[in-house]
From TrEMBL:
UniProt cross-references to Pfam families, sorted A to Z: DUF192
Name recorded for this polypeptide: DUF192 domain-containing protein
Species: marine sediment metagenome
């Protein structure tokens, strides 16, 4: 028996075993695969009256990365976050939710010019049913969203109208006067 036939035979024997696995285990495996895809990390700065606030952020650019977000993380370093980037403008009614997210987060929705157009504080959802988790709509059209630990924006006086710059992507911006 040649090598390729042996591989095919082994795979066909394992297929029925996969069907016997609980769906939750298969789902966990799929989420684990999504989590293992490495995300780009970038430095960004939020420009506000209190000066620039620098963060190291993971960048969620693919659908799988955006769906996974910060799910199941028990903590996040203070000067860290996750930047969700979209290919096109997202409508004001688009929302984020906290299903399977364990830590409270602030989210800033950011327009095409890098201006923060909305800020929400999101609490973890303790429900095991996704539809029972609240959603947090932007209320304004946006191109990206930035999640950080809850309280980060308020503690630093960051507000709607402040500017987010990502030098490696879009250059530099200044807060509105």
């Amino acid at each position: 028996m040649d090598h390729s036939r042996r591989t095919l035979l082994k795979a066909s024997l394992l297929l029925p075993l996969a069907a016997l696995m609980p769906l939750s285990l298969l789902s966990s495996f799929a989420w684990g695969q999504a989590a293992s895809t490495s995300m780009q990390t970038l430095a960004l700065a939020i420009h506000s009256e209190g000066g620039p606030h620098r963060l190291q952020v993971e960048v969620a650019e693919t659908t799988a990365q955006r769906q996974r977000g910060l799910m199941e993380r028990e903590s996040m370093p203070e000067e860290s976050g996750m930047l969700f980037r979209f290919e096109a403008e997202q409508p004001a009614e688009n929302a984020f939710w906290m299903y399977r997210t364990l830590i409270p987060l602030d989210i800033a929705y950011i327009d095409e010019q890098g201006r923060i157009v909305a800020i929400n504080t999101m609490q973890p959802c303790e429900s095991s049913t996704p539809r029972d988790c609240p959603s947090y709509p932007a209320g304004a059209a946006f191109y990206s969203a930035l999640e950080v630990n809850a309280g980060y924006f308020a503690e630093r006086g960051i507000k709607v109208g402040d500017c987010v710059s990502v030098p490696e992507i879009a250059g530099y911006c200044q807060p509105a006067d």
